Amino acid sequence: MTEKVVVVGSGFAGLTAGALLQKEGYEVTLLEAAAEWGGCAGKFRRKNFTFPVGATLGMGFEENGLHRKINDSLSIHSDVLPLETVMDVRIGDRVFPYFTERSRFLSMWEKEEPVDALRIMNFFNEVWRIGQSLRKHMLHYPVLPPKSIQELQALLRGFSPMSVTLIPYLGRTLGFLVKKHRLEECHSFIHFINGVLMDSMQTTADKCELMMGATALDIYHHGAFYVRGGLFRVAEDLVSSIKENGGIAKKPREVVSIQKKDHWVISDHRGNEYKADHVVMNVPLSNIKTLLDEKTYREIQPSLKKKEDPTKQWGTFTTYLAIKDEAVPREMNLFHQVMVNPKLEPSGANHFFMSLSEKGDHLRASAGFRTMTVSTHINLNEWQTQEQYEQQSKVILNSVTSKLKQLMPGIDDDHFMYEITGGPRAWERFVKRQGGGVGGFPQTKENALWNAVQHRTKVDGLWLCGDNIFPGAGSIGATSSGVHVARSISGKKLV
């Protein structure tokens, strides 16, 4: 008899697990609570404009990249534009272009910080060596710690003599390398890497686990991409793959309970029941307790329960804009990371990431217009009351608007067609993330690698995936967790 799998949630992790298992011959039913596919990589529409929910770059679409390998295995083609300049990193009044090509990147630092350029070069060369070794492992979607022969084999496939050189870095933060290369007082460099790490690892260099941080600082040089339409296009392609291979995908279908009997019984908000041999939960840990029956919840591993509090993650405040193309300078890059005041922390109104639609991308805006998504990290504890919510929203929106006027001289109210904002409550309401936590756990030593939450729950047939699960946040991290689940269920390599 063909085994049945119900996937709860259509983020990249759940979609990947579902698509791979459906192709392998399992009967997959995908249930999404929201009105759109993709979770944090989803979209919403306002008339002729489509807004990606998150302001994200496309990663892993290069030759042999993690998304590319999955796309190839599922016969999916993503329409992506390789970026020579990943983004402009704006620190106060200074602009640091983040070039994909390493030689140009180092030349930029030689120009901007000639006194510290050699130490910066040595820092990045060491980071890239670490990244090169780790990448050989990542290409095989390893699990740490490995719990099966299959997972051990995946880890060993990436092993090389270079792997041994990683041992001295275990148990350290990226701050170790900063101190080693005597760069603590090069403030532009510190702000630069901290901004990149906040967006990808949810923490700064002094706290970021060293190997995860090295991966984040290495990955852009393998390829960064603008995904035409937005990352939601990739999510929709994965849904299509499930359907074309005979699976079922339904939205909006909010799962309200998951019960373990002689099989799994999953109930949605419309009163429908689905029976399954396996349940794949692509939901934040904060959602799990409300979904599982009491007996099953008691059986899951205690480490999961310790991280249920959504405030252990960052939240995000996002601004969505539709603007007339005539207001956008011709040479303006599509992605910008902004630190308004270098003397303050990289969060809230002081630090945000901006994603602009490509000119002519009519999947996002009609002719003559562009859309922009601007997101910033926020401390959820500071957004608990209505007064806090309104005050913080106003401060961030004013900061974003002020920076836009600097980037686009001459822009005025007539150039704006839409100005929509969304804080933690919007993420809770529309993306169904209880408590509004977004982006996974900060990749500190306490949360990364061996200390990350695993995809196994210790309950037979119940699996976890998503940005809360090893290896961590971002589309690549979430996707990898989906691969781990699909491999554990099938017992096959798959990708």
Automatic annotation (TrEMBL):
Domain Amine oxidase, first and last residues per copy: 12-489
GO term, biological process aspect, one: carotenoid metabolic process
One Pfam assignment: Amino_oxidase
One MF term in the entry's GO annotations: oxidoreductase activity
Recorded superkingdom: Bacteria
Matches recorded under InterPro entries: Amino_oxidase, CrtISO-like, FAD/NAD-bd_sf
SUPFAM superfamilies: FAD/NAD(P)-binding domain
Full protein name: FAD-dependent oxidoreductase
